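step 3/5: co-fold with hypoxanthine
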Amino acid sequence: MRELIAAAAKSVTGRHGADFPATVLILGTGLGGFGDLIRVRTAIDYGDIPGFPVPTVPGHRGRLLIGEAAGVPLACMQGRLHAYEGHPVQKIALPVRTFRALGAKTLIATNAAGGINPGLVPGSLMAIADHINFSGLNPLIGPNDDAIGPRFPDMSAAYDPRLRAGLAEAARLEGIALSSGVYLFTTGPSFETPAEISMFAAMGADAVGMSTVPEAIAANHAGLRVVGLSLITNLAAGISTTPITHDETLAVGAHSADKMSRLLLRFLPMIG
Ligand code: HPA
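step 4/5: write tokens
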């Protein structure tokens, strides 16, 4: 792992230089448009970074953008990697660990999610307060490298409370409604059954999705502060009266991307 991280970091430094941003943003399904708001200095295809998996899902470019947004240095994964694509979660952790090795301190992970809490209708934004890993997958399974982080990392404040307060303040200043809730991670790619959603509701989940948790675990392990932000693109199965489709996810993403972008642009300068 250490060699993989070093090789990936060297390839990024070779193209961009040594001044890697302190903040990294991962754009979720349908949210790649934020990339247009970045003053890009360097764009690198994942395929050109050794070990980086390449996304296969419509709505996900596979580019690392490095530049600035709202005057803040920012690296951005335009296109995320999902376990359901067949990427081992250990590989999904590689970009996060590489960013840490390059000096990043904060990870903002965005995603599209289904709303379980009745208050979360399509177009709602939810700050992730905590997560439930319902996948049986964990990127830390395997030998531990103590130089990256501890064997048994604490996850009791996996989503940084101070940054969450900052995000809430940014939402208030922008006049954007922002809920806070628990994100439940399943592998997908099939959407959930109504029975599963009833169970997840009873377990305390507010939203459900197929990403973010592997990166959040790897980031906590490596000592990065994490912010999670979900765009609710549909009512979860059984709550919705219509079938759930990926096209709907992309359409709501496109429709509400502007709101998420405004929130992020307001929030970025508050991270310090
Ligand atoms: N379930 C899982 N993942 C999702 C959903 C959903 O309903 N909507 C967007 N991503």
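step 5/5: annotate
The beta strands are 23-27, 39-45, 63-69, 72-78, 106-115, 125-133, 178-185, 207-209, 225-235.
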